[in-house]
Design a protein that fits this description.
Helix 1 packs antiparallel against helix 4. The chain has one domain. About 15% of the residues are buried. It has a 6-stranded mixed sheet. Helices cover about 40% and strands about 30% of the residues. It has about 170 residues and is an alpha+beta fold. The chain is built from 5 helices and 6 strands.
Length: about 170
């Protein structure tokens, strides 16, 4: 009887160890996986866009155009590569499950938004802020829409097919 109990204990401990290693591995992967990083800036409306807007909006100087530019091509980068690593580490280790961002949008030196597709029709926005050289998750929001992009299940399915079946 005690041999059977010991076998059950060993199986249970092996399962727990496997889940722990899998969890840590997925967190490291989410921290190191390639992510598109863009910088966001506000600029006055272009002439073509002003012509397309109704007159009451075209004359309003408070209305600006949001421009996204790749981090590597940006003339002025507001955060360093070290900050980007800290942001990715915060996203990987701050909650019970790691976030796998598709894009990081840098708004200024202390505000970043991560875009995380969860399913084909649902995307999560996570706002990160910096205080005293430490990044933290300030809040999140979920948006539902048509064709947001591939979610985690679709990405995992493609990854497993690539590894085990050799498909692309």
């Amino acid at each position: 009887m005690s041999v059977l109990r010991n076998k059950k204990l060993v199986v249970a401990l092996c399962c727990i160890a496997f889940i722990a290693v899998l969890n840590v591995g997925l967190r490291f992967y989410s921290q190191l996986k390639p992510v598109r990083i863009v910088t966001a800036s506000e600029q006055p409306l272009s002439k073509g866009l002003r012509r397309a807007l109704p007159a009451e909006f075209a004359t309003n100087s408070a209305i600006t155009e949001r421009v996204l530019q790749d981090y590597d091509l940006a003339h002025e980068t507001t955060i360093t590569r070290t900050d980007v690593r800290q942001i990715r580490s915060t996203l990987a280790w701050s909650t019970w499950g790691a976030y796998w961002p598709e894009r990081l949008e840098i708004n200024n030196s202390s505000n970043v938004v991560a875009f995380i597709p969860e399913t084909e029709h649902r995307i999560r926005y996570i706002e990160l802020r910096k205080e005293t050289n430490r990044w933290y998750v300030a809040g999140s929001a979920v948006e539902f829409g048509e064709g947001v992009g591939p979610g985690l299940l679709e990405i995992a399915k493609q990854y497993l097919e690539l590894i085990f079946l050799g498909r692309k």
